[in-house]
Specification:
Blueprint: H1 12-24, H2 37-56, H3 58-62, H4 71-96, H5 102-110, H6 127-145, H7 154-182, H8 186-205, H9 217-222, H10 230-248, E1 258-260, E2 265-267, H11 273-283, H12 287-300, H13 302-319
Antiparallel strand pairs: 1-2
Helix pairs in contact: 2-4, 4-7, 6-7, 6-8, 6-10
The structure holds Phenylacetyl coenzyme A.
Phenylacetyl coenzyme A binds next to helix 2, helix 6 and helix 9.
Protein name: Ring-1,2-phenylacetyl-CoA epoxidase subunit PaaA
GO cellular component, one term: cytosol
GO molecular function, one term: phenylacetyl-CoA 1,2-epoxidase activity
C-alpha cells in the first residue's frame, strides 16, 4: 500500500483543509478533486437552475421565429435561440462533472422540483419584446455571469467564458433592433416603450432576492461560487442600463430612479417582491405553458434520444 502524499491526503480533515486552501488561494476546484458535499450540492443546484433557464429561455423568443419581420431578423433570432440551446448543453455537461444525470435534471425541471429563472415566465407580446429581451435580459445575464467566469468550480467558470461572449452578441443584437425601431414610426417607438415598461421590473428580479433575504448567498460567496451579492449585481446592472436607456430614447418605468450625486450610483424604487414570489411559486403569466412545452419536447422526442443512445452503444462496442 502506498503512503499518502502531501498532494493527495486521504483522511477527511486533511481533504477539507486542502479544499479550503484551494478556495483561499483562489485556485479552481476540478471534478477529480475532493469537495464538501454541500459545495457539490450547491453547484448542482445553481448550475441546473442556470441550464434550465437557458433551455426554457428559448421559448419566449422562439415564439417569434415564424413571425420575424424579415429574413435578416429571422436568421439573427434563429442563431440566438440556437446559442441558448448550446449554453444549456454546456451547463448540463458542467453539472454532469459533479455526478448529476442530465435526464434526471430534466425530469426534476418538468416535475417542478428545480427552478429556472423567473424572467422566462413572462409573455412576448410584440417583436419589440425580442429586442428588449436581448437588451435587458441578456444585459442582466451578462452582469450576473461575467463574475461567474471566476467561479471557484473550473468547469462552470470555463463554460461561462464562452457563454458570456455569446451573451454579449445577444445583447448588442437586441439593442440594434431597438435602435432601428426607435428610428421608425411613432407606433414602433410606442411598441418599444411598452416592452420596456413590461420587462424592466422583472429584469431587476433576475438577480434574486435582496441580500437580507437570500439564504444561499453567504455560503456561496464564501466558497467562491458567487463573487458578488444579488444586490451588488442588481445595482451594477441599473448603473449600466440607465445611460443606455437615455441613448435609446426610452423611459424606464420608475419615477424614483435618479442618480445619487454623492455616490455616483442610481437610486431606484422598491421592487415588488410579492410578484417575484408568486412567479417562483408557479403563478407567473406563463409558468404552466413553459413547463407543458418542455414536457412535450421531452416526450415527443424520446425516440431521438433512444436512437442516439443505441447508436452510441453500438459505436462504443465497435471501437472496443
Ligand atoms: N428566478 O439564495 P438565493 C439567461 C431562487 S440565464 C428563479 O439568492 P442563489 C440567459 C434561488 O434559486 C438566467 N429563482 O439563491 C438568457 C433559491 O432557490 P433554491 C439564469 C430564483 O442561487 C437570456 C432562492 O430563490 N441565470 O438569462 C431567482 O444564491 C435571454 C433563494 O435565492 C443564472 O441562473 C430567479 N430570478 O442566487 C437565456 C445565473 N433568483 O434553489 C435566454 C446563475 C433566486 O434555494 C434568453 N445563478 N432564485 O430553492 C445565479 O447567479 C444565482 O443562482 C442567482 C440566485 C443569483 C440566480
Amino acid at each position: 500500500m502506498s503512503a499518502p502524499t502531501l498532494d493527495r491526503p486521504t483522511d477527511e480533515a486533511a481533504l477539507q483543509r486542502q479544499f479550503e486552501a484551494t478556495i483561499a488561494a483562489d485556485r479552481r476546484v476540478e471534478p477529480r478533486d475532493w469537495m464538501p458535499e454541500g459545495y457539490r450540492r450547491t453547484l448542482i443546484r445553481q448550475i441546473a437552475q442556470h441550464a434550465h433557464s437557458e433551455i426554457i429561455g428559448m421559448q419566449p423568443e422562439g415564439d417569434w421565429l415564424l413571425a420575424a419581420p424579415s429574413l435578416r431578423r429571422k436568421a439573427i433570432l434563429l442563431a440566438k435561440v440556437q446559442d441558448e440551446a448550446g449554453h444549456g448543453m454546456y451547463l448540463y455537461s458542467a453539472a454532469e462533472t459533479l455526478g448529476a444525470d442530465r435526464a434526471d435534471l430534466t425530469d426534476k425541471l418538468i416535475e417542478k422540483k428545480q427552478k429556472y429563472s423567473s424572467i422566462f415566465n413572462y409573455p412576448t407580446l410584440t417583436y419589440a419584446d425580442v429586442g428588449v429581451i436581448g437588451w435587458l435580459v441578456d444585459g442582466a445575464a451578462i452582469c450576473n455571469q461575467v463574475p461567474l467566469c471566476r467561479s471557484s468550480y473550473g468547469p462552470y467558470a470555463r463554460a461561462m467564458i464562452r457563454v458570456c461572449k455569446e451573451e454579449s452578441f445577444h445583447q448588442r443584437q437586441g439593442y440594434e433592433l431597438l435602435m432601428t425601431m426607435m428610428r421608425g414610426t411613432p407606433e414602433q417607438r410606442a411598441m418599444v416603450q411598452d416592452a420596456v415598461d413590461r420587462w424592466w421590473w422583472p429584469s431587476l428580479m433576475m438577480f434574486g432576492p435582496p441580500d437580507d433575504d437570500s439564504p444561499n448567498s453567504a455560503q456561496s460567496m464564501a466558497w467562491g461560487i458567487k463573487r458578488h451579492s444579488n444586490d451588488e449585481l442588481r445595482q451594477r446592472y441599473v448603473d449600466m442600463t440607465v445611460p443606455q436607456a437615455e441613448f435609446l430614447g426610452v423611459t424606464l418605468p420608475d419615477p424614483e430612479l435618479r442618480l445619487d450625486p454623492d455616490t455616483g450610483r442610481h437610486r431606484f424604487g422598491a421592487i415588488d417582491w410579492s410578484e417575484f414570489k408568486a412567479v417562483l411559486a408557479g403563478n407567473g403569466p406563463c409558468n404552466d405553458e413553459r413547463i407543458a412545452r418542455r414536457r412535450a419536447a421531452r416526450d415527443d422526442n424520446a425516440w431521438v434520444t433512444e436512437a442516439a443512445t443505441a447508436y452510441a452503444e453500438k459505436h462504443a462496442g465497435a471501437v472496443a
